[in-house]
Protein: Efflux transporter periplasmic adaptor subunit
Amino acid sequence: MDRTPRGPSSMYFLQLLQAYSASRRTGCLLLLSLLVACGKPVPVELTEVVIQPAEQSYFPVYGEYIAMAMPSLDVEVRARVDGFVEHVDFKEGSLVKQGDPLYRIDARPYEAKVKRLTALLNSAKASLAKAGRDVKRLRPLFEEDAASQLDLDNALSAQETAAADVQAKQAELQEAELELSYTKVSSPIAGLVGASQVDVGALVGSGGQSLLTTVKQVDPMFIEFHMSTLDYLDAQRRKNSYEEKRKADAEGKAVEGFVRITLADDTDYRYWGDVSFTDPQVNPETGTFAVRAVVPNPDRELLPGQFTRARLELETIPDAVVVDETSIRIEQGGSYVMVVMPDKTVERRFIVPGPQREGRVVISSGLDAGEQVITEGMHRVQHGQRVVALNQQQYKERLEAEEKARLEEQAAPSDGES
Structure:
C-alpha cells in the first residue's frame, strides 16, 4: 500500500525542508568566506614625514653682542668769556653745521675794551714814530761831533722801548678782539645740538654757568660693545700671516672685520661698520674688552645711546655639515636627529651640534653630508619604524592639493540645496 502523502499539507512540508537546506548551504559559504578573509594580512598605513638632506657648505661663524650707538664726537659748548646771554640762535635737538651761530653774549664791554686798546696802540705807534725821528736827527749830528754819544744812545733806547710798547699793545688788542669774537658762540662741529642749559639773560662764564649746550656728531657713529677673550682668540686665528697681525696692531685693532648691526625691530641696518679700535686691556672682572666700530649714519637712523646688536665674523668653516634647527631634538642624553635610511626606516642618531645662525646648525659629529634628516613629523615616528619620506616640494604640493580639495568641498552645494 502506497503511504506517500498526496494532500496539500504534504507538499507544504517538502517546500519547507528544501528552503532550510538551501539557507544552511548559504550560511556555510559565508562562514567559509569570513574565515578565509581573516587569514589575509591587514595592510599597515605608513607615517608620512618631511625630510631634508644635510648640506655641506661654507659656514661663517659670528659672535653676537649687545652694543650701544655712540656719537663719533661729543663736544661740550662752553662760554669762554663772562657776560649775559642776549640771544639763543638755534632750535634744541636740530641739526647744525660747523660754524652755525648758537649764542650771542653781551659784547658791549668787549667792544669798549677793543676801542680803548686800539687807541693805546695808536699812541704807542706815535711814540715809536717820534723816537725814530729823534734817532734820525741825532745820528748826523753825532757824526759831526755836534751831539754826544749819550744823546744818541738815549734816542736809540727810546726807539727800542717804543717799539716794544707797540708790540705789547698789539698783543693786548689781539686778546681783546679774541674775547670779543667769543661773544658769538658758534658750533664747533656738525651734528645734533642738545638742550640749552641757559636762557636769555643768564650770566655765563667764570662768574656763572659755563656749559651752554652739547653738539654730537652722528655721522659717522660709533658702535661700542664688549667681546670675550675666547671670541678674541677666534678672531685672531683668522689672520693668515704675521704681516696682517702687525698691521692690525699698528692700527690699534686687535680684532679686524666688518660689523653687522641689528636694530631694535630685528632688521639689519643697511650699512656695515668697520672695527676701528679695540681696548688693549681685558677687564679682569668680566673677562671682556671693549671694541668700537665706525658705521655711516647719513639718515640718522642710529641715535646716541641707542641699544643695538653687533655681529662680527669670528671664523669660517669651509666644509661644514649643516641642517635646519627644526630637525634637532634635545633630551637628557644629548642632542639627536631622526635619519631616514635608504630602506625607509628611521634611525635615531645622536649628534654634537656646533655653531648656529639664522635657523641653521653646524653638526660637528654624528652626521654626514647628504643624509636625510626629518624636519617635520618627528613626534609621530620612532627608531626602526618605516616611513613615507617626502621632500619639501612634495610636502608643499600635498598641502596645496589638500587645501584645494577643502575649498572645493566648501564651495560645493549640499544635498538639501536645490
User: Anything to note?
Assistant: The first strand starts at residue 47 and ends at 53. Confidence is low (pLDDT under 50) at residues 1-14, 25-37. Residues 319-406 form a domain with the conserved putative lor/sdh protein from methanococcus maripaludis s2 fold fold (CATH 2.40.420.20). DSSP finds six helices and 19 strands in the chain.
